[in-house]
Design brief:
Strands 1, 4, 6, 7, 8 and 11 form a six-stranded mixed β-sheet that branches. Strand 2 and strand 3 form a beta hairpin. The radius of gyration is 30 Å and the shape is elongated. The protein is α+β, with helices and mostly antiparallel strands and about 210 residues long.
């Protein structure tokens, strides 16, 4: 048993010495001793929370600002007004994209096909129906249809208009959110009612 303990201790000591030797060898600078000789330096990268060698390991931080409200006003004749200054802004160092957009009907409301407001002329008052149209960054308009009254995916996979650069390029780090809607008639005044919600999925624009 004593011999076994000695053998284990000896093996551990040998392993420790070998690891120290390898570490020292790796840290040793290369000496070029002839004209035209070469030396190679490895470029080592560490991503850290504070950008220092001793910082905690961390990936690039994502910081994308999404609008909290897409306001809609509907007049007594059904004419709809929407905001024209809504944007998604990327404050991250890295490029990002809108990878998916889904619209969901609010409580007591139903999605319908977007089109002319006249398409809702025959529906009953207080039917609580909304048709929605969305375009990102000047891209192709995406419209709701009449197939699913509760939830519809407008964008599935980033398309033209969905991409934003990192914040180092202030000319391309944000995209406009253009939208429109049609709303069924209401018998009583409505103020800031939550008739639908739009879910934006943001991802890194990675290889």
């Amino acid at each position: 048993m004593k011999n076994m303990k000695k053998l284990v201790s000896l093996l551990l000591a040998v392993c420790l010495m070998a690891s120290l030797a390898i570490g020292a060898s790796a840290a040793e600078p290369t000496t070029v001793d002839v004209s035209g000789g070469t030396g190679t330096s490895s470029v080592s990268l560490s991503s850290t929370s504070d950008g220092t060698f001793d910082g905690d390991p961390a990936a690039t931080k994502m910081n994308v600002v999404i609008p909290t409200i897409l306001p809609i006003a509907v007049g007594v004749d059904g004419t709809v007004t929407t905001a024209t200054d809504i944007r998604i802004t990327n404050n991250s160092y890295g490029a990002v994209k809108v990878d998916n957009v889904k619209v969901e009907a609010g409580a007591g409301w139903k999605l319908t096909a977007f089109g002319s407001k006249d398409s809702l002329a025959k529906v009953k008052v207080d039917s609580n129906m909304i048709g929605f149209k969305l375009a990102l960054g000047g891209g192709v308009e995406q419209l709701t249809n009449a197939e699913n009254a509760a939830s519809q995916t407008l964008i599935d996979g980033a398309i033209e208009g969905c991409y934003m650069s990192g914040n180092g390029d202030q000319t391309a780090n944000s995209i406009a959110v253009s939208y429109d809607a049609i709303v069924s008639p209401v018998s009583e005044a409505v103020v800031n009612a939550s008739v639908a919600s739009v879910l934006f999925v943001i991802c890194w624009d990675a290889v």
